[in-house]
Amino acid sequence: MPEFKTEFEFETPGLTPEEALAFWKDRIPLTESEIRQLSEGARSRAFTAAGLARQDQVALLHQALREAIENGTGLKEFKERIAPLLAEKGWQGHRVANILRTNLQTAYSAGRWAQMQSTKKYFPYLEYYTVGDRRVRPSHAVLGGMVFPIDHPFWDANYPPNGFSCRCGARAVSGREVERRGLEVQQEIPRDLLYKDPKTGMEYRVARPGADDGFRHNPGKDWLAGLQPGPVDFREPGKGKPKGVFLCRSPRNFSSITEGDACFVSLADIPEKHIIKVGSKDLLPGNLTQMGYINAFLEEFGAKYGQSKLFRLPGVNLPLVINERLFLDKKENKFKVAKQGREKYLKLLARTIKNPYEIWSHPLVLSRGKTIQTLSLIRMFYLEQEKKKLGGLSVFRLYNGRSWSGSTVFTPAVTSDEKYIIKYLDDLRRKMLLEYGNAALLYREE
After folding, report:
1. CA 124 centroid distance within chain
2. Which terminus of the chain is more solvent-facing, meaning fewer CB atoms within 10 Å of its CB: N or C?
3. What is the DSSP code string of 290-308?
4. Distance CA 76, CA 165 (A)
């Protein structure tokens, strides 16, 4: 990835573009009306721009900003990339530069936050700094030099950038540096502070120091802050083992299903007690909106669009984060609820997560070469009206070693006949067992 350069002053000390890009890829382009429906926490994962009412406009701007982060393009290339928007909206140079500057600062600051969180054992404090000239807003200038613990609530609302064209920053500080420089570690959030104009020497009070309106949040904090489940653990305190069995883990040289029959039984041969019978009341009508289908699914977990729910399987210490991102097409960054005809069966897919027949675990190598741990939950259903078996599949990925976050949920080959559906799932299970090195069948219903 090329070195990051811009036509304006911007500091990214010790930060690689990959960290900023990882943050940006996770921001979903939404219109202003869609943004207003989200909870405050969910908005940190969304992107929009004032005056853009159409999804295609937001998506164009979102992609152009992503390319600016990824390729290190400057203002000139950015203007060329969004030329259709400039012609349609009549945006002038100052506004375009402000959009580019603010969003790049936000992305890099978020990446920087993640970096500092990973080293907070050695650098447990952050120091707020400013450029120090007259252009610094008084409400920001009065915070210059203040030091707070890295996890102090102060940073929830005042982690830079703290306004349009803000040039403030935060740097990590070790305990030894605090002692060496004689720094005072603040514990109280500042309220009423005295500001001295560097040119005139006049002093006056700043009643509300800190971030400007619209910037009182920390872009680096995940919208699931507080939902920090750990890796799979089937030993829930005080409840013993769940009503299931632990089967086997396949070594990397595992080459024959016959060597591990305990690990693999075709879904065509499982006992009927493991197949849930469903009727018309368990299915959704075909006339709901995309939002209606998403909410119908989330309601099964006591959540709704814009909220996240931490769901734990009964008897299993397996915390899963449930939200609308299960229906997000990651490549196109758009919601596709009707993908593979799943919208009708969303209540069943919720039951796949709440009551799985099997839970598989295997590593998955992403396009950038990064390996991420993955869970696949499977359940079989029998549609009484159609007299046909149907499979439910949901996939979760482990992020930052702590959060099992939903990747997708769908009904494989739903329009095909029963034999093909079973073959589809059996082939997937074989692949998990035989091809994904160090894969394991963690749980199977008794």
Report:
1. 25
2. C
3. HHHHHHHHHHTTT--TT--
4. 18
| Residue 226, burial from CB neighbour count under 10 angstroms (0-12, 13-18, 19+) | exposed
Per-residue pLDDT tens for 413-444? 878 888 999 999 988 888 776 666 556 677 78
Q: From edge to edge, which strands make up the β-sheet containing 125-129?
A: 147-149, 125-129, 169-173
pLDDT above 90 covers a percentage of the chain that reads 25
Q: Which amino acid is at 19?
A: E
User: Sign of dihedral through CA atoms 185, 218, 157, 60?
Assistant: positive
Instruction: Count each helix (H run) and each strand (E run) in the chain, helices first.
Output: 13, 18
Please report the beta strands in 88-154, taking only residues with DSSP state E, as ranges in sequence order.
125-129, 147-149
Angle at which helices 93-118 and 55-71 pack, to 10 degrees? 60
Higher pLDDT, 184 or 86: 184
Q: Which runs of E-coded beta strand occur in 282-387? A: 309-312, 319-322, 328-329, 334-335, 358-365, 371-383
Where do the structural domains in the chain lie, given as residue ranges? 1-111, 119-219, 244-445
DSSP 321: E
Element (H, E) at 176: helix 175-181
pTM: 0.50
Q: What angle do CA 98, 15, 61 make, to 5 degrees?
A: 35
Say yes or no to pLDDT of 255 above 90. no
The helix-helix angle for 17-25 and 55-71 (nearest 10°) equals 170
Residue listed under structure tokens 């020497």: 201
Collapsed DSSP state (helix, strand, coil) of residue 180 = helix
CA distance from start to end of the chain? 50
**From its phi and psi, is residue 212 left (phi > 0), alpha (psi between -120 and 50) or beta?**
beta
The structure tokens 């559906």 sit at 421
pLDDT at 314 over 70: no
What DSSP string runs through 61-92?
HHHHHHHHHHH---HHHHHHHTHHHHHHH---
**pLDDT (mean) for 63-79:** 77
Q: Specify whether the CB–CB gap between 373 and 230 falls below 8 A.
A: no
Assign 171 a pLDDT band (cuts: 50, 70, 90): very high
C-alpha dihedral, 44 to 231 to 308 to 218, nearest 10°: -20
